[in-house]
Design a protein that fits this description.
- By secondary structure, the chain is an alpha/beta fold.
- It is built from 19 helices and 12 strands.
- It has helices at about 35-60, 70-80, 95-100, 120-130, 135-170, 175-190, 220-230, 250-260, 285-300, 305-310, 315-325, 340-345, 405, 425-430, 435-445, 455-465, 490-495, 510-520, 525-530, and strands spanning about 1-5, 10-15, 25, 210-215, 240-245, 265-270, 350-355, 355-360, 375-380, 420-425, 470, 495-500.
- α3 (about 95-100) packs parallel to α5 (about 135-170), α6 packs across α8 and α15 (about 435-445) crosses α16 (about 455-465).
- The two termini are about 30 Å apart.
- Mean pLDDT is about 80; it is low at about 1-35, about 60-65 and about 75-90.
- InterPro entries: GAUT (IPR029993), Glyco_trans_8 (IPR002495), Nucleotide-diphossugar_trans (IPR029044).
């Protein structure tokens, strides 16, 4: 939301964000002025008063006769800033101020102390109480205050990133409790060990007249939300087949959950990776690559302590390095999608879903999208109003300073998203996509992770290069785990909302107003949920 003030200072106009069609024009003092608008107006007024004081101080320093009342200052500001003209301070501010502010030599010497103002109020008070107000004193105090606050802000930001990294990398005790209780249920209750699906429904697993979805996850609660939201929003749930792939340790509790919580009439299959005979070390290149990756990454990164101790790198670089250490980037669940043609040799087309999303619409129309011979139907991530999430190109993920990358790819080529993808398995089997994927994984390991540093999307961008069919962004909205700037109207309109990022909806660090989109598909009255103290 933006504030616009007319040059006459008589009207305040709030310009709301995208999606609101009308301006809200309010006369100052009108009874129709809402509390929120009044709050913003007061904040702006306080800011103007402070800025006027700084201007007055500069005027005094420069020994010029200037305005002595608010009205005069208002006219000065209105004629300069509010009418879009730049305020030329060069003619009013002594050169010594610029010399001190631009001097880099003293910045490292600044430490917190009683003489340095800790806030704007203290700065103003120190200027008022100064016996001799000169330009040099003004500049030194101002620089000291700003530099100190910058250092503190940087430290606080890095600590925030570290805490978020720790929170997102660990397993909440409630989820661990749920897994243990379901494992116990699996061992003691025959009803929790049902074959999924039931024998009479097994033929549907290879029947291409059904809509087949694949979910790879070792998170039982997250998988249940994806499955429930998928079936609940389907117009024809009897045509939905969901194949859930998990690891060995999660198979028993995952089977117990879906045995005790059937989503009829949809068909649910639960299968572990060890049930695929060919998925074993020595037969699957990605397993060896993951093992090497873990060793190199541990040596290359030096641990989270070494990362946050770096005083030269910018906070967003430190955040990226911490993110690269996340266990999910070395999880086999992240690589499962590259083996879909082998896992489902009888299927022609599947929709692959990540476990950190929520389905909000019927997804059967995805199977009717014309793929034009392409393999991967995906939403592009270089277009849209959200510049943080939807501004991704190949250069955002790949290191174009490396010749192997720069000579093979275009840095400005639009990237696309994992998380909700249509895969034409028939077309895939005619390509060398999987082989390319393994080749580039190995090349990155040989280069000590210098081609890219984290995730399965970079090798995916490479392997599926030239095989991507762009689909409407309505089908897949991203970034709900990174930021909370998206309007609820936009979020609720999307077919699938994806909590990619650290703020997963099952964590305490999730954004509250977005988390409710996920919790609506959790039955908090369920005995397993209640016994593990999982609450809305």
């Amino acid at each position: 939301m933006q504030l616009h003030i007319s040059p006459s200072l008589r009207h305040v106009t709030l310009l709301p964000g995208k999606g609101v069609r009308e301006f809200i024009k309010v006369k100052v003092g009108s009874r129709r002025l809402s509390y929120k608008i009044l709050f913003y107006s007061l904040l702006l007024f306080i800011f103007l008063l402070r800025f006027i004081y700084v201007l007055s101080t500069v005027d005094t320093i420069d020994d010029e006769t200037k305005c002595s009342n608010i009205g005069c200052k208002g006219e000065k500001l209105a004629s300069g800033v509010l009418r879009g003209r730049s305020l030329r301070l060069n003619s009013a501010v002594p050169e010594v101020i610029y010399e001190i502010l631009e001097d880099q030599s003293s910045e490292d010497e600044i430490v917190g102390g009683p003489d340095i103002p800790q806030s704007l109020e203290e700065f103003v008070d120190s200027m008022k109480g100064s016996k001799r107000l000169d330009a040099k004193t003004f500049a030194i105090k101002l620089k000291s205050m700003v530099t100190l606050l910058e250092k503190r802000t940087r430290t606080a930001k890095i600590q925030e990133y570290l805490y978020r990294h720790v929170a997102s990398s660990s397993i909440p005790k409630q989820l661990h409790c749920l897994s243990l209780r379901l494992a116990h249920e699996h061992a003691t209750n025959a009803n929790s060990r049902l074959q999924l699906p039931l024998p009479e429904l097994v033929p549907t697993l290879v029947n291409n007249s059904y809509f087949h979805f694949v979910l790879a996850s070792d998170n039982i609660l997250a998988a249940s939300v994806v499955a429930t939201s998928l079936v609940y929003n389907s117009l024809r749930p009897e045509t939905v087949v969901l194949h859930i792939i998990t690891d060995r340790k999660t198979f028993a509790p995952m089977q117990a959950w879906f045995s005790l919580h059937p989503l009829s009439p949809a068909v649910i299959e639960v299968k572990a990776l060890h049930h695929f005979d060919w998925f074993a070390k020595g037969k699957v290149p990605v397993l060896e690559a993951m093992e090497k990756d873990q060793k190199i990454r541990a040596q290359f990164r030096g641990g989270s302590s070494a990362i946050v101790a770096n005083n030269t790198e910018k906070p967003y670089v430190i955040a990226a390095k911490l993110q690269a250490m996340s266990p999910k980037y070395n999880s086999v669940m992240n690589h499962v999608r590259i083996y879909l043609p082998q896992m489902f040799p009888s299927l022609n087309k599947v929709v692959f879903l990540d476990d950190d999303l929520v389905v909000q619409s019927d997804l059967s129309p995805l199977f009717e999208i014309e793929m034009n011979g392409k393999v991967n139907g995906a939403v592009e991530t270089c277009h849209g109003g959200d510049k943080f999430v939807m501004s991704k190109r190949f250069k955002s993920y790949l290191n174009f300073s490396h010749p192997l990358i720069s000579k093979n790819f275009d840095a400005n080529e639009c990237a696309w998203a994992y998380g909700m993808n249509i895969f034409d398995l028939e077309a895939w089997r005619k390509t060398n996509i999987s082989e390319n994927y393994h080749y580039w994984l190995e090349e990155n390991l040989k280069s000590d992770l210098s081609l890219w540093q984290l995730g399965t999307l970079p090798p995916g961008l490479i392997a599926f290069h030239g095989h991507v069919q762009v689909i409407d962004p309505f089908w897949h909205m991203l970034g709900l785990g990174y930021q909370e700037n998206s309007t609820m109207a936009d979020v609720e309109r999307a077919a699938v909302v994806h909590f990619n990022g650290r703020a997963k909806p099952w964590l305490d660090i999730a954004f509250p107003q977005l988390r409710k989109l996920w919790t609506k598909y959790v039955d908090f009255s369920d005995k397993f949920i209640k016994s593990c103290h999982i609450r809305p």
